[in-house]
Amino acid sequence: MQAENRFRLTGVDCVRFAVEDIEAACRFAADWGLVPAISKDPALKVFTATDGSEVQVVKAAAGQPRCTPIGAPSGLAELTWGVADAAALQAIADELRKDRAAEFDAEGVLHSHDDLGIGLAFRVTRRRAVIYPVTRYNAPGQPGRLNARAPRYEAVRPHEISHIAIGVDDAGEAVKFYIERLDFIVSDRYANRGIFMRCAPVGNHHHVFFMNAKQPGTRFNHLAFKVRDIHEVIGGGQHLDALGWKTFAGPGRHLISSACFWYFVSPFGGSWEYAADEDMVGEDWETQDFDAVSHIFSEWTFGLEKSDGTLRGPISASKEQAL
Ligand SMILES: [Fe+2]
């Protein structure tokens, strides 16, 4: 395996959502901890995470390709992948143009689509490394944080977009374009149910997860943001909960990717996920095929209801009981 993707892909640079309720979507993004950015177009709302990962929000409008969510009234309109440099961008254009349109816009962003019709874009990454004090832990007999209190977070500040999950009819078919044309790598699989892929040999466990959906069709499932540690996952989740947003699942810890998570139902047609301490992988990572059994979703999740398939967090649930 080569050390770098042929196209020097760096990860998800931007996710563009088209939504029915743009006011609610923007409120959710701000409550989530993203920072509003300046947009030249008043109809385009832009939010950024610490490293420059970007979310764009537009009002859903049928007939306008970049304002049309795929498969649902609100959802994913375009997924932008970052690349290292302009030469890589041109190499992707040359590859895609073998069998489909791929056009540069005035800002040098390349627009195309995958085999399912998901709008794809590629740009020289606008994400940048941001250095911050990494949380240290005291383990028995091995104190890593001497004479210092543990971090507390008054406000959540997502560091970066980690990955996106997309529901499809056939995950095995959906991934072919990415593997065969863009050299994505399978990191892990749920047998016959979902495939975790990364866009570079070294880095995130997954940047995209294609999962067989309960409903037919292709649609946005969730978007994950990395936060600094589990304390920020919990703090962020409590903050969202206090503002009235509903838990989809969590807090909990995934078995696959090891991330501590908390998902919230969002106005974007799916959920958003805070995630901390996800597996980072390299060329020696061994791909596993996991049984698609119900408990594979997590090692543990507070409030997880397994009997009827609904997932509820304990804090939202207790608040409803109190009313
Ligand atoms: Fe996720």
From TrEMBL:
InterPro entries registered for this protein in UniProt: Glyas_Bleomycin-R_OHBP_Dase, Glyas_Fos-R_dOase_dom, VOC_core
Keyword Oxidoreductase: yes
Annotated ranges, domain VOC: 160-277
One Pfam family named in its UniProt record: Glyoxalase
SUPFAM superfamilies: Glyoxalase/Bleomycin resistance protein/Dihydroxybiphenyl dioxygenase
Claim: Disulfide bond is one of the keywords in the record: no
Keywords, ordered alphabetically: Dioxygenase, Oxidoreductase
Stretches assigned to coiled coil: none
The protein, known as: Ring-cleaving dioxygenase
Species of origin: Thauera aminoaromatica
